[in-house]
């Protein structure tokens, strides 16, 4: 599976119906001879109607899906946006997949939303520490594109947990209707949620390469129950020379949190190409995404004069047939200044070497730090910065922000969002205003310390984005926070 950026949604899904109303404009008339004959025929052939009812219903759903696809970009009263960027219609082949994940003591519950047609099956999966499988459950989408999943909790504390949603055609048996609309291998699927992947049974031949819609979110289990929103993938523009044998690789960001080295890179490699990264005898691999990008997460221990090495080998085990065909089964079609021939081999590979320096993200002990590729998130408890029910910074808060400002000043030309959050106690409007004021106060102070080299934006979410349960004082305290989010790609 590809390495993922955070994802990412709370959509509103509507069915767009195209209604032909011309008959309403005609005066009432007696039924024609043909209509009468058809009515009699229907009454005398009820068994045939029963036998074909499912087929007619399926065709009706497909017709509605086709109509939705034709009108998805039209500005109509029935089209409502599901987020700030896009509007989706039920049955459109440009698929949306999202919702909210809630961690309870014994379950992980997903309240899912999509624009998939009724009867489509969505798989929810929980895994720990990236690779270790925990559990999965399948649910059917209803006629509003919604679905509900309850997945058993793995009951392990302090482990990184990934919760994913997938609409796929490999291990999940979809209905004939779903396959007719989206393709038996998902080949008709479109949009930012769509990935190619290799089928579980078989090699890398074209017949075993599927498309699926996929989104995921991560959290670390602990004493506080987590609430997460699935996010939409945020891809780079697709390179014009995607698939060109003259391969290039560019490092967008390289950072470490003392435990892992995080690499975000762009390339013109075909989607599905496997890329390997190695640093100080530790390694990681990833499949290239639809935009040519990939992310690596390599265990990190600093060593002098050690370099990061990124390799693409077309003859590597598990490369798809299309990869070998494009670049040569022995890499013989590869060109450009990254081409090299390893010792004791006659095969050509792509190799890029990067100096070992990386930006180290350091925050005070009281601040929670999360890194996922190019995404850096700092969570500051409100009592670290403010007195109760106030938005003016406390004196001892400034020492915390001074340390954070030193870390932020290492980054060039990045956008930083500061968001305020509250618990659910009190008036909604008051909480909204308080969250906005607190975010603005933090921005004002950091901007004065750092200067104009970095762009800050602020937003207040009030009580709408909890990260823990508001049913306990501990959970409420965790929800009262200021978040500093850095997208290192921008």
Automatic annotation (TrEMBL):
Pfam family, one: OmpA
Record's subcellular location: Cell outer membrane
Endpoints of the signal sequence: 1-21
PROSITE patterns linked to this entry: OMPA_2, PROKAR_LIPOPROTEIN
Compositionally biased tracts (Low complexity): 32-48
Gene Ontology cellular component annotations, sorted alphabetically: cell outer membrane
Main localization (coarse): membrane
Keyword terms, alphabetized: Cell outer membrane, Membrane, Signal
Source domain of life: Bacteria
Residues of the OmpA-like domain: 373-490
Disordered, as annotated region: 28-60
The protein's name: Outer membrane protein OmpA
